[in-house]
Design goal:
5-stranded antiparallel beta sheet, mainly beta, globular, 5-stranded mixed beta sheet, 36% strand
């Protein structure tokens, strides 16, 4: 699935596309008028001087021809739209937590439009995720270090702050267990690092969700993915059956809404504690963060909600790119502690 969240931005070399070259050349007015005048001269058998009315008519015709040619040339230029080099459009300019939106693909999509999942490639939109270590021992604390590199293989060091962080890192095993939402720190040389423990053997997927900022200020929202390996006896777990309610650490979390392939629909989550509605706190600029991963290819969606609670509930606008089974991970915060509720969702 695709993602809905803010992120950090790396420095990207200027890659402004070359201006389109117009091959249609507008004729030189002088040459046109010369050719018109030459062809318009009529010799008089009695006198070498041209008839005045004939010359006047020739000049009028010549002017019309010239106007048509110039109009055609200008029309071609305007139709092509080449009044200079194309400008780079900002991919993500929303301040943290101001509106619901999706992230995950190389470009941000508008609400209401089907979107492709992100995190399926290690390189996209001119950026590459480069882990400096990819193997971990099961259950043993380790350190994940990586860089985001640009098209010239240089480490990116400029990131936009999206939902309070320059980069969001999601890690999950390929059977969709062991979900972690982490926030690495970056050194001056563009190397990110974060403590990481992978509890079980198997292949894990790490998603780097960020917004890169170019030297000219253009922003590109990207989600890149790379595999991490934990040697050992890998025993994948089956997904739990679909359900719209679950419990986590004494909280009951349920949702209403029916996601549909290729459509954007509202999905609202209610979190209740022992005494009723839980006193939700803002976490990373919002009352909840929703990550959805598609079974099979692990396509990634990161969804952020409405900026305010709606009737005490957290409301998202979710766009699922296609049919299949998805695993939903809802992060929410109560009493300064972040909880994660998980659901299995089937989209027909």
């Amino acid at each position: 699935m695709t993602d809905q969240r803010p992120a950090a931005v790396p420095v990207v070399p200027d890659q402004v596309p070359d201006a389109v070259v117009i091959s249609d050349r507008v004729p030189d007015p002088a040459l046109v008028s010369d050719r018109v005048s030459d062809s318009a001269v009529v010799s008089d058998p009695v006198s070498a001087a041209p008839d005045r009315s004939t010359l006047r008519l020739a000049l009028v015709v010549g002017g019309l021809v010239l106007a048509v040619l110039l109009g055609f040339g200008l029309g071609r230029v305007n139709a092509t739209g080449t009044t200079g080099s194309p400008s780079l459009a900002a991919e993500h300019t929303d301040p943290p937590g101001v509106a619901p939106h999706n992230h995950g693909s190389a470009t941000t999509t508008d609400q209401g439009a089907a979107t492709e999942p992100g995190g399926l490639a290690v390189s996209a939109a001119g950026f590459t995720l480069a882990p400096l270590v990819t193997e971990f021992a099961a259950g043993r604390p380790g350190q994940l270090r990586f860089q985001v590199r640009d098209a010239q293989r240089r480490p990116v060091t400029r990131f936009a702050i999206v939902h309070d962080k320059p980069l969001h890192l999601i890690v999950v095993r390929r059977d969709l267990t062991g979900y972690q939402h982490l926030h690495p720190t970056m050194a001056a040389d563009g190397t990110w690092s974060v403590p990481l423990t992978l509890a079980q053997p198997g292949v894990w997927r790490a998603y780097a969700d960020f917004t890169a900022v170019a030297d000219n200020g253009a922003q590109t929202a990207v989600t890149l993915g790379a595999d991490l390996v934990v040697p050992g006896d890998y025993r994948p777990r089956s997904l739990p059956a679909p359900a719209t309610s679950t419990t986590v650490d004494g909280f009951t979390v349920g949702y209403l809404g029916t996601p549909q392939a290729g459509a954007t629909v509202p999905v609202t989550f209610r979190i209740d504690g022992a005494g009723g509605a839980a006193p939700l706190e803002r976490y990373l600029g919002a009352y909840g963060h929703l990550v959805a991963l598609r079974e099979g290819d692990l396509g990634y969606l990161h969804v952020h909600p409405e900026p305010e609670l709606v009737d005490g509930q957290v409301k998202f606008w979710l766009t699922t790119p296609g049919p299949g089974r998805y695993r939903l991970y809802l992060d929410f915060q109560v009493d300064a502690e972040v909880k994660t509720a998980e659901f299995t969702l089937t989209v027909p």
